User: What shape does this take?
Amino acid sequence: MTAPTHRISRGSDFSRTLKSGARVKSRDFSLHLAVVGHDWPDPRGVRRDVAMTGGPWLGLVVSKSVGNAVTRHAVARKLRAAFAATRHLCPAVESYVVIRARDTASERSSDELADQMRAAFTSRRIAGLAGGTPSADGVGAYR
Assistant: This one.
């Protein structure tokens, strides 16, 4: 699972990722990815208010259109599990990932969501952010 220290909690980070990050749409969610250092506030590409090591950081948007509170929490747990299974495919370790769930996400298992997330992380739009191909060992960043 995703540790609480690796979750996006600030509204400004959510909005920055949603507005400036690359977006890939899937059947049950849309994935937004913003690499730290790409259009970040500090000219050096480092946020000054928090330590930026050990990412990627995950944020979830699960609106009321998905269902009641019980359903929304279940979808959030499934998305966190799917992200934990596919985070090694994230093109840059120092990045923010925001996943916006659609109402059909409640009908899918975490394995089905992980398959969709795998496809999103390996899409050209996301892979192009790091400017490379997946590493041979399959761990972490693109080279």
